[in-house]
Task: inverse folding
């Protein structure tokens, strides 16, 4: 004998949550073991120390995988390019800004298979505004 189960339209005790889709980067931050641990460490340290208004992280490792020093390296996170805009750079010249960022990432650079190369573009908010204004003027 078959039993038929009929669902009744009762209001659930706990409201149902609608599924939310997250960008891949957010999901990787939530996972226990991230697919981009070095990028996550860079983002965390720079954000905590410099409170940037703009932080762009580009993983350029794939462009350098064929270089001789990278032979035998299994890491896919060796070469990064960062664009950082922060008030923390005010009254500092470029070398001092770069030393500040390199100091934050000292452990990542010293780790075996860690950060091999770092390209930095550091700006204050005013410098970023001047750059945007110049780009707009060049377009006209």
Result:
């Amino acid at each position: 004998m078959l039993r038929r189960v009929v669902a009744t339209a009762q209001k659930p005790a706990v409201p149902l949550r609608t599924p939310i889709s997250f960008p891949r980067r957010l999901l990787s931050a939530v996972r226990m073991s991230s697919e981009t641990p070095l990028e996550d460490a860079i983002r965390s340290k720079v954000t905590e120390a410099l409170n940037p208004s703009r932080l762009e992280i580009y993983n350029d490792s794939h462009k350098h995988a064929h270089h001789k020093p990278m032979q035998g390296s299994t890491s896919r996170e060796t070469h990064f390019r960062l664009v950082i805009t922060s008030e923390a750079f005010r009254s500092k010249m470029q070398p001092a800004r770069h030393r500040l960022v390199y100091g934050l990432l000292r452990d990542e650079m010293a780790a075996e298979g860690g950060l091999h190369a770092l390209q930095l573009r550091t700006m204050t908010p005013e410098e970023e505004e001047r750059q945007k204004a110049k780009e707009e003027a060049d377009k006209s």
User: Anything to note?
Assistant: The mean pLDDT is 77. Residues 35 and 62 are 15 Å apart (CA to CA).
